[in-house]
Amino acid sequence: MHHQLTRRPTSIPALLFALVLGVLVLAGLFAAGPATHALAATGAAAGSAASSAASTVSPAAETIALPATETAANSAPGVKQLAAGSVDDFEFLSWDSEWQVGIETTPGGKDRSYAEVTETIVPVFPEQDQNRGIIRTVPLAIGDGRMEASDVDVRDEDGNEVEFDSDVSGGELVVEIGDDEYVHGEQTYVLTYTLHDVIADLGNPEVQEFYANLLPTTRAQPIGTFSARVTLAPELAEKTVGEASCYLGDVGATEPCEVTIDGLTYDLNPGAMPPDETVTINIGFEPGTVPQLSLLDRIGWFPLVVAFVPPVGLVVSLVFLVLQWRKSRHTRGGVVVSQYEPRADLPPQLAAQVIPSLSLQAFPASILHAAVKGALRIEESVDAPEQPVAGTTAKLRAPQLRRLSGGASLHPVERQFVDEVLFADAGYGSSADAGQGSVTDADSIGEPVPLAGNAAIGEAYTEFGKDVQNAAADAGFLAKSPVATAWKNRTIWVTIVSLVVAIAAFIILVIVNGGGLMALTAGLFFAFVAVLVISALLPTKLRTAEGAAAYDHLRGLRDYIKLSEADRIRALQSTDTAERIDGPTGEARIIEVYEQLLPYAVLFGLDRKWAKELQAHYEAADSTPFWLYGYQPVMFGAAMTHVKQSAHAAMPASSGGGASSSGFAGGGFAGGGAGGGSVGGR
């Protein structure tokens, strides 16, 4: 089956991409510089012309004498020893490479060099099930630029199609030959591909060069017989300068090899090739034989216009997103004053609606809030084994919750949390019917409920979340903003339309062979998706003036909790707050205030510090909280950590090659040209 050459889209950070792509495309319209401006990831070999000292070109059919190479690769020194069973443990019976080098006209009306390459590769695989074919890679770098690859195909010796996959990745053409079936013995693969821009300026101002590696520079297998032929188009042959040269050996070797020239053809027959040795040819041409093309010269104006449309759509989408964000901001509050007393109408669940970033801690905070209010008691499960508490040295048993008859002062939302989330399956009745006695003498009214890993609690909490959102709106803290909603709809629709246009542009670029513009356009898809996600996440329910006041109050609570112990005591004793405090500011009163703030310390992520200070006051007063049964005062901090962790557990889960410099006039070496790459088993 024949697979066309594909390219993997390059992932580029969306915002940076949106800002610079338009500039890059416009620059491509006027750039006439070297191939380094090419956006395509495809290519061909380019090289340098003849070496003066290396070899001398004689008249037609005359042979240049060269030192003979060692023969059979298997007996050559340095042959790699491969572990038996490795996919690279095979050899090549022969490898023949043919290059047809010519000049084509680009859509922009400019001349451009190309090479049609045919490699007839004959591997010999072992009889055991080891190989499914070979992998051939061809680097596309040439000088400061990059070649393009196209028209990849693989056949057998009879011209039948051979299964393969081809791709351009990491600056290389990668061709995987074969399917999932094992192959054995002698196989023949005829690999053809076309490389564009194979003649380039490689640093020598006196020549342009075709400087190509005719064999993979990375290869673990010996080759029994290698031969190569390079044929120049007549219009190129008349512009050659100097003498052609070739080099044989490991990468970096300067040993010349024999080239036979017959008219337009250059034949190389080095014979056997040991592993990792390559053959590189260098042919020079008059300066300006092939112009160095700009992007517009390469592909014409139409693909550029098509590729420019999606970035414009992205910019428009980003503008709409910014406008939506500005219309989705909450009402700002005023001056924040430290608060030591929570508002009765602002329990943890509603507080998390006012400040959404607190929502993850709302579940454990609500458990502690209900406990402090006398609606439940937290107990150690006597039947559970002791387990270490993360972040502490303590070992405690799993906590469980027991319903109490107190909790008359619970906010309706928190009462619903107790009834429908924590004890929904316990059959205790509503906490609204609980006794009206003080929290200190509340009676147990049911069997305990396990907390950690309780799936029923997790499921009920998910359903409960919808009611909390409605309750926050009913309380006047939040209100749906028609303006924010309208801008969300506009942003989503504009982005969807822009995404559809970008997909259409990508399809057009594929049809007209837009080269690297296809990858750039495909990269925009991620940016459009990001805009859609961000737009969907921006709120349309915004804080009202009452919500802003609640927001400021919560910030005041947080500031009070973050104060030092001495500053908090002074705040309790100040003339501004004295009339709001019932009773003295001794240990009992401090414990009462600190207990009421404990759920909010959990909300703000300050629970470890707060629990430690509250524990110190319990020890000083020689008392234990009525709502925490079975724990010693010295274990209070560890117990709070254990409860918080258990509560969270109950919540629902949300290679060589690439010509880099001139190889002309004896400056070349084996492996210094473009192409080459690697080959191996698969």
From TrEMBL:
Residues 339-614 form the Predicted membrane protein YciQ-like C-terminal domain. The chain crosses the membrane at residues 301-323, 492-512, 518-538. The keyword Transmembrane applies. Keywords: Membrane, Transmembrane, Transmembrane helix. Residues 115-285 form the DUF2207 domain. This is DUF2207 domain-containing protein. The lineage of its organism: Bacteria, Bacillati, Actinomycetota, Actinomycetes, Micrococcales.
